[in-house]
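Quick entry, no commentary yet.
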Amino acid sequence: MENRSRALYLIPYMLWMVVFVVAPIVLIAYYSFFDVEGSFTLGNYAKFFTPVYLKMTASSFWYAFLITLFALLIAYPTAYLLTKTKHKELWLLLIILPSWINLLLKAYAFIGLFGTYGLVNSLLEVTGIGGRQILFTDFSFVFVSVYIFIPFMVLPIYNALEKLNPTLLYAAKDLGASSWTAFKRVIFPLTIGGVKAGCMAVFIPALSLFMITRLIAGNRVITLGTAIEQHFLVTQDWGMGATIAVFLIIAMALIMVLTGNRKRGLIDIVKK
């Protein structure tokens, strides 16, 4: 009877997964086998392995890597300091709060800040440095992307640090470990699960960015997400757009498998 009740509870979840996860993926895979005229073809997959799309794929992974790296370098110290401060819940809320604002509004806000007559250039003029072309550059694209994804990196790392047993740090210090050694041998290894979760939460959506590339980078940065948008909305080549999406889904699935959390015990860490 209990097993039957559990099965009934699983029905809404399974329906949700089938309708909103499995069905869209199957539909995308189906469209990838058709050309602009609606004829069955494998040419889309052959076209994807041409230098143009391979270069675009490499560019997407490179920018996603940079965004994830800078987000991690900022988020880990931030999350660590949060665990040591008073009113940590309030500070955490302030970090999360910008993620509640619409992405388009944030993009236009940065256009105003980084524009030729924006606040940043005005400050540069006042300091004597002079105006600079900040908008429509690689720097502005990476900067805005990191700002957008910071909360998604901070949260899992903060949760991992909060769950860390403080007695382990006391034991490390009693054994003569310096602050850096304690971080390297105790804190970071025990919070690697949060780091992996944060990296996945940033790297995977960063691969498919398209709005930021258009508004902030001015299409100077071309990613797989930009190509998908162009094929579906501009060229109307749904087959090629679906083919790129298929490879993007495969890449995301591989990343999730490779960076999947494997629980490590304290004994495993000490052995290292």
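second:
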Amino acid sequence: MIGRGRAGRPRPERDIDLYSTPGGTRAVENPVRRSILAALREREHTFEELVILAGRAKSTVSVHLQDLAAAGVIGSRPDPEDSRKKIFFVTGDLVASVSPEERVVDDLAAYAGAYQAGSGDPNAFYRLAFRTIRVALMQEGVLLDPLLSRAGERIGEELYPAVADPDTGAFCANIARFWEEHRLGRIEVAETEPLVLLVYDCFECVDLPVTGKPACAFDSGILRALFSRHYGRPAEAIETRCYSMGFDHCRFEIGVGGGGREECRTPE
């Protein structure tokens, strides 16, 4: 059961997506517009395709597209096959979503109480701060996964030179060593075809509430950037298990652009 909101802090009645644009952050609340943007995040679409996807009249979809374009969230270009038609695409980045259905009711005091001063772990306080802020946002139904994922990608780009190795097995070992040295968790290579990494004691989610959904958007972003640089082409780090899903570890499957998989070979 979701608790009542506090005085002066009205509870949202519907989901809201937040997009970053050159003109600032834009909140998109209308469900039709959110569905249009969800489709455009997958790929570009023609006006006719969006009408079918939205299930609304052409005039209604046209108004939504005009408003989204005016807000700087989407753009369009002429269809190369028919200049009278347009192809629409997303120009803004999804930053976060606000959903009353995603609220959690865990007590923040439980997270603050988990910190032990003088434990000898210099990173304990920073992990505490990270997860406390994360849970505080989750209590309000604020989901920052898109933003955390992009932040992770930036960290991964900076981290890559420290773990780089042309041999995939050695590269995986370097990543595992970095994670353990910085107390981010313990990484194991579980499978090689496809390449699967397991993370135990994950700093990002080990103490988060169980929601039934993956929570390691930050780690996913880091791993995506690392393996994209390693393979020299876009890679994905798809999380299929997580502490927040009730497992005792996180599981990432590494996929390479074009639908292929890569093998992690141990150096001889």
